[in-house]
């Protein structure tokens, strides 16, 4: 069983400068390494497929395929639900675990401080022109489809509800592999598509996006992850700040960005937003009468 850490093993020859670039990619971005072909790894590292294979063998693997599998295992272990909560717990101050003490205030302070820091960094990095362009595209679209998996789908549902309340037709989508096939036909040529992947752009999300690009007018990806090569220059990317080693989750900035876009849409057409919300309120009152 190969070592899951793609570093040179004792007794193996020293790596050349090109081979070190291959090893560095696997070490620093195991997700990208695991989900790229040998040709893509070679392009990312400015080497060749032969160099990638040679580096893998020097590191103790049977070849590129086994080294990719090792990187995939590292990603699976680091991004599991247990690993994520473990990372957040490790970011809490040591006093939060004092025995026989009520440390709820310490925990709340750490999480809320982390969340506030994320929101400040989001504000510092958001490009006003990008938000304006995105809001304009949503308003002019036939419909805005919002895709997400897991927690991201819950955020997609919220986003669609709020879009509807400012007069923009919206539909939440989800699904991977075969179930994703049911979502694709719902996307029309005059539709905007939003991909919500707050933490990572997993292969299932990447594949969905690639196919959806054949149908949607344009696609916006919201994620702290960098775009995979297959999507570069094909989608609009709104990058969220990294949540590495923080006590707050990546969902904080995703929810906040949804609210930013809703506010910008409402600002552009306040009459439409107010009229739609007033109508919803009237319907609520009618239902409350029963």
TrEMBL record:
Domain spans labelled SIS: 134-271
Which residue ranges does the record assign to the HTH rpiR-type domain? 2-78
Q: Which Pfam families match?
A: HTH_6
- Where is region (Disordered) located? 1-20
GO molecular-function terms, A-Z: carbohydrate derivative binding; DNA binding; DNA-binding transcription factor activity
Q: Which GO terms describe its biological process?
A: carbohydrate derivative metabolic process
Q: What SUPFAM superfamilies does the database record attribute to this sequence?
A: Homeodomain-like, SIS domain
- On the tree of life, the source organism's domain of life is Bacteria
Q: Where is the composition biased (Basic residues)?
A: 1-10
Signal peptide bounds: none
Q: What is this protein called?
A: SIS domain-containing protein
Name the source organism.
Nesterenkonia alkaliphila
Question: Which taxonomic lineage is given here?
Answer: Bacteria, Bacillati, Actinomycetota, Actinomycetes, Micrococcales
